[in-house]
Amino acid sequence: QVQLVESGGGLVQAGGSLRLSCAASGLTFSSYGMGWFRQAPGKEREFVSAISYSGRSTYYADSVKGRFTISRDNAKNTVYLQMNSLKPEDTAVYYCAARRLTYGNIADTESDFGSWGQGTQVTVSS
Q1: Residues 74-107, buried b or exposed e (16+ Cβ, 10 A)?
Q2: Rounded (10°) CA dihedral 109, 110, 113, 116
Q3: Do the Cβ atoms of 81 and 37 come closer than 8 Å?
Q4: Cβ neighbours of residue 125 under 8 Å, at least 6 residues apart?
Q5: How many helices (H) and strands (E) does the chain have?
Q6: Where is 5: in which H helix or E strand?
Q7: What is the DSSP letter of 111?
Q8: % pLDDT > 90, the chain
Q9: Which listed residue, 1, 33, 85, 88, has the most CB atoms within 10 A of its CB?
Q10: Which residues contact 2 (CB under 8 A, 6 or more apart)?
C-alpha cells in the first residue's frame, strides 16, 4: 500500500521560506514521477510542481515559477518542495502525489496521479 507523508508546513511571514518534504513508502519510488498540488480555502486543488522519476525534468505552475524548487532523493524515497519568497496567496494545504504509472513523461493533471498524501498546511501572513 502506497503511503505518502508530507511535513514541513507551518506559518511564515511574506517573503519567507519553507521546505516541504514528502516521504514515500510502499512503491518503487525511483520509478514514479511525483508532484505537488495545493488547495486554498474555497478553491479547487491546483497543480504546483512536478518532477520526473529520474529527477532530470521538472515543471512548475506559472504562479510559483522562479520561487519554488522541486527536487527528489531517490535513496531516501523523498520528494521536496523548497518555497522561497512566499506570498499570502501561497496559503493552502499542500499535497504530495505519486503518478499512477511508472516512468513516462512529466504530468501536471490530477488524474495522472494515483496516490496522495494527507496534506500539510502552509500559511503565509502579510
Answers
A1: beebbbbbebeebeeebbbbbbbbbbeeeeeebb
A2: 140
A3: no
A4: 11, 12, 13, 14, 88
A5: 0, 11
A6: strand 3-7
A7: G
A8: 96
A9: 33
A10: 24, 25, 26, 27, 98, 114, 115
